[in-house]
Amino acid sequence: MAQPAARSASVDVERRPWVGRSIERVEDAALLTGRGRFIDDLGTPPGTLHAAILRSPHAHADIVSIDAEAARRAPDVAAVLTGEQVKAMTSSLVVGVKAPVECWPIATERVRYVGEPVAVVVATDRARAEDAADLIDVNYQPRAAVIDPLAALAADAPVLHDGFPGNLASDRSFSYGNPEQAFAEAAHRFSIDIRYPRNSCTPIETYGVIASYEAAEDAFDVLANFQGPFSIHTVISRALKVPGNRLRLRTPPDSGGSFGVKQGVFPYIVLIGAASRAAGRPVKWIEDRLEHLTASVSATNRATKLSAAVAADGRVLALDWDQVEDCGAHLRAPEPATLYRMHGNLTGAYDIRHVRVRNRVVVTNKTPTGLNRGFGGPQVYFALERLMQRIAIGLDLDPLEVIRRNLVPAGAFPYRTATGALLDSGNYQEAIAKAVEQGKLAELMARREEARAQGSLYGIGFTAVVEPSVSNMGYITTVLTAAERRKAGPKNGAQATATVALDPVGGVTVHVASVPQGQGHRTVLSQVVADVFGLKPQDVRVNTEIDTAKDAWSIASGNYASRFAAAVAGSAKLAAERIAHRLARVAASQLNVEPVDIVFAGGFVVSKRNPENRVAFSRVAALGHWSPGSLPDDAGQTIRETVFWTPPELTAPDDEDRINSSLCHGFIFDFCGVEVDRTTFETRIDRYVTMHDCGTILHPAMVNGQIRGGFAQALGAALYEEYAYAADGSFLTGTFADYLLPTTTEVPEPQIIHMETPSPFTPLGAKGVGEGNCMSTPVCIANAVADALGLEDVTLPLVPAKLAGLTRGPEPEPPAGRSSAKPAREGDRRLHGEGSASVNAAPDQVWAMLLDVTTLQAVIPGCQRVDKVSDTHFRADVTLGIGPVTGRYRADAQLFDLDPPNAVTLRGKAEGALGFGDAEGRITLAPDGKGGTKLHYSYDAAIGGKVASIGGRLLDGATRVIIGQFFAALAHQAGGAPAGGFSLFALLRRLANLFGGRQ
Amino acid sequence: MTRLAAHSRYPVRLSLNDTPVEAEAEPRMLLSDFLRHRIGATGTHVGCEHGVCGACTVIVDGMLTRSCLTLAAQVDGCEVQTVEGLAPSPDRLGILQQAFRRNHALQCGFCTAGILMSLDHYLRRNPSPREADIRDLLSGHLCRCTGYTPIIKAALEAAAELAATTEEKSDA
């Protein structure tokens, strides 16, 4: 649809296009002065209520009962919703595979992951809603949990959903070419077993939803920092039981990062929508950080076995993929998309014609998964590029040479991969040659030799990666069989949309449905459209908010799959060109020239042949409003143009399951040098070189910004970040002190090198660039670390303890007589400890106080009440604070092996909003010879829930403080205070609930 | 120290960017929430509420402070500076802000307010920092968009420019 008049006018006064220049961002002035408009900065309608969510402390348990009466009666509480109420008002969320399984935004009858919503409390403010949530009594009957994807497939594994027998949600096998023959005939076979961990890009702004149910029209108006894809709009409206035109979904002007993650806000849109309906008022919910880390969304973890049939010269003839994808407790839309996003690209940057694939999707007792930057790429390339290094080592070849010998040939584009992707353009050989030269690989090799000669652990890693962008909305249907697809109807394409409008004084406005979270879309669009109209970027106002009730949008709208530059910016160009084409006709008639003689430049519409003959752009632009009768009859309106653009290359999967999963394919070649400290096993990035061919570059500084940002997140994934779970499903990384992000002191500046091979399939020649380093960098660093340490297997994140274990073997026992080291943090939530104290009262006196309810009630801090069930069985309600979090606990304790007044064993458990614990302790009392008592205690406890998530750092300190305070108080009481006494019960309660740290 | 009743509201008066402000707060209200929701100064952002991410950093009586770990009642009578007070006028950016814009040192801008406050505070006291100093200072801030290096570059450029401006002034 490109028009000559418009195209030739792509210049400013200096005759240089704005596209391709790193102009300052239009977004920045507001953000730098505190005037951003993020969701929590916007006003709410009068009377808006606030929601707090009570979440499961258990990874897997039946909900026996929920008593929410006290919460409902609490001051300023408008509504309390449990699964039962939500279920009555909504429908199950759509599940992405054909199976008799439901997926609710809140637990109904059973909880399946720590952090799963159990109740929603709506009150006049958030604090009161949280207060009331503490009053809800949930009685859980714990079940065995499974957190490992392969363990979930075992015959005796606990089953999460009856509709997924054996926890298997999907099992599909594919064959392309003739892999059997290739494997039978190949000189070599190499295999690798990979466990890719769970992590997330964790935006610094959390989720937010403001929902309002309008009963008069049976419609919802929702503001949420959702990021798309808007195919999810259909999932939400269906769940809220209204047609799509009665779900008005809007986004705020600014969003504090997403990286895919804010797709996962959608179950909360349903939940808060239902809460608004129940309360009859608008309801607002802003997620807190603990909620976000525990239960927002995670990238998938995956177990992969990848084998290659390899010729003697290192050529890979065939691949055999066996992937087991862990989507967590529920298969939420659009999962299992993470597994299929890369389906067309399973051969990476290589010319491999034979591929066998088995894709299994399993559910486990972990947070459900969703979009995350890289989306399937990190998991696939970690296996593929680790295997390429293995092949090189196995055949005694240079790893870079093995990469080179397998690349897609330079003249082969557009190149159809074995699994169906159409690689649009590129020259991988030239890109690598450029990177090797400009990135000074020879120098880096010499540096490695030098470092090794001096005894350093230095390694070099390589990665070649194809970065797909602009997802085919039909790729996910590859999970269905061809017959199922025929029945369901075709799904394909990637509708992008842009609207360009001219106002009555000739001002230009652009609207797109791209929903940016900091990527500078408004700036780039102003450049693109300014070029078409011969204006300056500041003459073009861009709006990127979306309102599904008023704006042009489609299911592919949103900010994901790196689709902005390739699809959305291109659509804006097309829309502007359509208007420019008509304006050229209007101007031609005014200037008395032919339309082909018209150009747009410097704020004027000008005759090319006679530049003196011109008219101001604003004058021509305004004419459609003020004097439509003056327009040439066949010019059409010049006020507003909306373009929908979808590339014809994005077709549905064919009957052989070949799928062009993405429109554009950038190329990345990375290499890096790392040094691993011999003593600490800390990995330091010495040099990182990253070569990108992302087609035409629209704004160089923003492209580099995407690369640097992706690189830093990938560095975190490689070295620090993991959503860690204990064996029982307790979530262990609920704070930023436990889930470690890289900071300024860890992230170096990568050397960025560019090459531009325009995409023939996009209006501007641009390809996506936002996700590539999340795919290439984790495995590049892993390859370098493997090279440094001579390791065959490495697992992310490459934390020092892991590398030390892999290199040195298990930690030796400490010398006799020394206290043993703290047990490894991972998976260890059993707490042991012992201690002693002196109390200034005789043993029989202390003993009596311990069994007296009145004494107990008086001395247990925060005690609401104590009930004596029998002489040796107590129940109590206690409010206790650990660090900044205070919660109410219900405790139940029994005494055994009583030997008055010498010794007693206690067993007890406690449960509350902050978690649960059970403990056993033995306490002995002995006279100290001075009329007092020498008391010794030892305990063994286990904790779970929120207390486990906030981590050892906080709990270690809290434990020390509480023990100290307890004995100080005890000594004080025994010294003659009226209610004096030592509370065995309090001690047990504290052991059971609070001793999260290891002594 | 006055004992405050948990469910009562108390007036909190402070100087915000050299302007007196006053609003009521319950004793448990955080300074971050007070600034944002009571005063309407939403430039200070909340990223983690446990003091790690640094997005909520403000200056209280000359000290860098995590407003999410500070109670509103604690700052009664204090001088508080926030991102809203950095620009010389509503239509102009300060030197540090300009350096951020020039270097593309922000993307989503959510963490930016806290980083600007830390840098503004630091550069006033340390006019010629080394890169390592800036990296050390900003290790208390999390940014997920930029990969940090443009922020470091902007800070060093701003420091140089501020130093030059100060010299000019002292010459004059």
Give keywords:
heterodimer; A: 999 residues; alpha+beta; Aldehyde Oxidoreductase, domain 4; Alpha-D-Glucose-1,6-Bisphosphate, Chain A, domain 4; seven-stranded mixed beta sheet; 27 helices; 28% helix; globular; disordered C terminus; B: 172 residues; Ubiquitin-like (UB roll); DNA polymerase, domain 1; five-stranded mixed beta sheet; 5 helices; 5 strands; 36% helix
Structure, described:
The complex is a heterodimer of chains A (999) and B (172). With 999 residues, chain A is an alpha+beta fold. Among the domains of chain A are: 4-36 and 495-540 and 559-645, Aldehyde Oxidoreductase, domain 4; 830-994, START domain (Alpha-D-Glucose-1,6-Bisphosphate, Chain A, domain 4). In chain A, the strands form 8 sheets. Chain A has a 7-stranded mixed β-sheet with strand order 3-5-1-12-9-10-11. In chain A, a hairpin with a 2-residue loop joins strand 33 (903-912) and strand 34. The termini of chain A are far apart. Chain B is α+β, with helices and mostly antiparallel strands. Chain B folds into 2 domains: 10-85, Ubiquitin-like (UB roll) (Roll); 95-171, [2Fe-2S]-binding domain (DNA polymerase, domain 1, Orthogonal Bundle), CATH 1.10.150.120. Chain B has 5 helices and 5 strands. Chain B has helices at residues 31-39, 95-102, 112-125, 131-138, 149-171; strands spanning 10-16, 19-25, 57-60, 63-66, 79-81. In chain B, strands 2-1-5-3-4 form a 5-stranded mixed β-sheet, sandwiched between helices. In chain B, a hairpin with a 2-residue loop joins strand 3 (57-60) and strand 4 (63-66). In chain B, helix 2 (95-102) runs antiparallel to helix 5. Chain B starts with 9 loop residues before the first strand and ends with a helix. The relative contact order of chain B is 0.14. The model of chain B has no long low-confidence stretch (mean pLDDT 95).
